[in-house]
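Tutorial handout. Part one gives the primary structure; part two gives the three-dimensional structure as tokens.
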Amino acid sequence: MTRAGALPPLAVAMAFIAAIALMAAALTIADPLFAPLVPGGLRRGVLAAQPVLLPGFALAGLGLAVALASTLARGLPTWERAFLVAVFAAAQMNGLRFGPLDAFDVAVFGMLLVWIARRALDSDRAIELPPLVFAAALLVLLQVPNLVHQSPVRWAVGLFGMVRSLIVAFLVVNACSSRERLRFAESALLVLAVASGTIAMLQFVLAYLGIFAFTLIDPPESALKPTPIGLVMRASALCITAQHMSGFLVFATPVAAWRLSERWRLRDAAALAAILGGILVSWNYGAMLAAMGLLGAFLFLRWPSRAMHLAALAATLVVLVWYTGLWRLLWGLSFGDQGVAKGVDQRMTLFRLGLEKMWRDPLVGTGLQGFAEFSGNFWHRPVHNAIGQAATELGAAGALVLVGTLFLMLTQAALVAVESRGEARAVATRATLMTLALMLLMQSEPMLDHANTWLVLGFVQATVLVLGRDGARRGVPRRRYIPGDTGAG
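Part two.
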């Protein structure tokens, strides 16, 4: 028996082994610096054991992580909370790979196995199969016929990514099955976004000052990007790309902004600053524009009674920026930069190739991840627009399914926000803002089978189900939206 909150003996043992392995590995790696200070016999022993020290350290670290995860899981009262923490954390740690899989794959399929085991013991528990799950399943089915013309390996990799998206959507919807779990999901999203943004800012500052450069972007050279302050290493925290990290932070922005608007505390201001700072140092201009658009929409949806004032202020700022020439300066510091222009030109070229593919055969796509082999695509990348990606890889049907899914999620979340009051209206409004952010990001990124896409869509679908079901249970009538009504009460 161990005290509540105490580490189990396995965790203590693994921590001790990991500490010894870490010291030995550090001594080996830093040999030129510490060699004069180490006795010759010890030094020779460490060097002789070098082939097994680093693998031993890796295994010990993995064992420690498993032990700590089991301890954390015991502290979480339900599978739902453990799942939300695991997938949100893994979504920001997908730069850590386990062979062909990354941390997100391991978390999703591991928690799926736990869910199946729980279902076997509790077969009376209801299972949610909302429209989002059927839409994801339809995208999976659209990939199946592409086996007749696509490389089997690439076809299997693409199918795996879409099946994973289906599983993520299904599990998120079933994990967020109550208002309390929706609140926990938002809190987990916010905490992990703040942590990721803080790591990203620290990572950028250390690299910019030449102290220590660390990135999980592969290859590391691709992390360098021309910016208004020179050629810098873009931050990605523990993600494999800056887009993974910055997109996750954009989705957490409405949660952080809403909490700040409710309490106006320094802690909440610091959380929002950490998220926006992380987006900035990622140097992902699509995420920057999405964050700015999201904050603009947030002001109108947070204070609808001030819509006329906000619109007048926005119009005044546009006029000032235009006639003072400030827009030229802003353009020169952003999209006027040669490196940014190169990225925009690449995206436009990929989109033109996508239009050519659709013109040749609008009904049949190249298969998921198959556009990399399309003639003229020297970058071997998908169209950097999610709808264009769906159209070129899954045909017109894939594009229609994706557009219909986004439209359905946006309109349903907005309708629930209009018809709800109090905290329910706030949650539905934040879900609406997340959907808008996703649609903005999709204009510049291939996010069809992206982890962040289906995490957000699953949360939005769960919000619609939970709040709609609660409203119907209470017999809340459909009401007409009245400008100036904040919904408080």
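Part three, for discussion. The longest strand covers residues 224-227. The radius of gyration is 25 Å.
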